[in-house]
User: Fold Transcriptional regulator, TetR family from Krasilnikoviella flava.
Amino acid sequence: MNTSTDARGRLVAAAQEMFAAQGVGATSPRQVLAASGVGQGSLYHHFPTKHDLAAAAVGATVADALAAARRDLDDAPDGDRTDALARVVAYLERPRDALAGCKVGRLTSDQAVMDDDGLRDVVTAYFVRLLDAVAATLRDAGLPEGAARDRAHAAVAIVQGGYVLARATGDPDAMRAAVRGFVTLLTDNPEETA
Amino acid sequence: MNTSTDARGRLVAAAQEMFAAQGVGATSPRQVLAASGVGQGSLYHHFPTKHDLAAAAVGATVADALAAARRDLDDAPDGDRTDALARVVAYLERPRDALAGCKVGRLTSDQAVMDDDGLRDVVTAYFVRLLDAVAATLRDAGLPEGAARDRAHAAVAIVQGGYVLARATGDPDAMRAAVRGFVTLLTDNPEETA
Assistant:
């Protein structure tokens, strides 16, 4: 990695941190510049506008989150049914910093993101891909298409809602309780009975 | 209702609308005053500070949301088990403006609320009471204490996460799919089998 890409990476990493902590709207490129420790010329070279910087940082946050989900969900070579359900449970039970909130989910409450078509599309694409990945794993576990999609929406909603509950109550156990309540139901019903 | 309480009510209603649309931090008392149509003297008479206005509006939003949940969840006179589960399903399936987001849940992403101990406590109390009400209904449905609490957290997380998914994808069906996926599991498992 040369000095230029290193400066770019430090700018993106600093923007990701600050966006997660205080939102996109409340973060100025100048603050990101100060936090990153790179020279001012690098900022304007790599990111002429705040939109360019926000797109890179939101894109990196989404790529990180999707990669983490895929590590939990991706196919085992044998395609075993029980194993597929265990992968969904692993996705649900992965330790999360509940009080910090989901770095992607919180962007849906960030007006500066939702008012910007380009940024909103990146957030939308994350959830569409995540829901597809969970639904595919639930189909591997033996669920028919419609039930797999509904249950995938429920699984992702449990994680997102768990973050909301943890932040609202100031208690990370609130998220763990939501996941536990859902996983108990999920593993008692590995296949559609209706 | 005299003119003074009417002016107070209009100020609170206008603040509730604007907080839901653009957040507490981005809303000035002056904007609320303009939207309410009341005289400037009324604003400073009823709400000397922005905190006073925010506390009244957040309190009213929480009271409305809790009353709506209690209408779905409150005990039927006969305490019938199936009926108790049906009440939880009614809470989950109540039609919601999914794309607008939860008026209370979104406050957990509003830094102006979470940084203010008084406002944050009002939001926390809402979720504690809502979780208690859902857990009590699930105990009426025959679940033991621990399972009822976990499943109540899951139910409230489904609603909150459903809002996040609907806003993120721009599709209100995303919330309905999450609720449907959870309700199918819930009604297939009316009692703890583990």
Remarks:
- Chain A touches chain B through 56 residues (CB under 8 Å).
- Residues 3-188 of chain A form a domain with the Tetracycline Repressor; domain 2 fold (CATH 1.10.357.10).
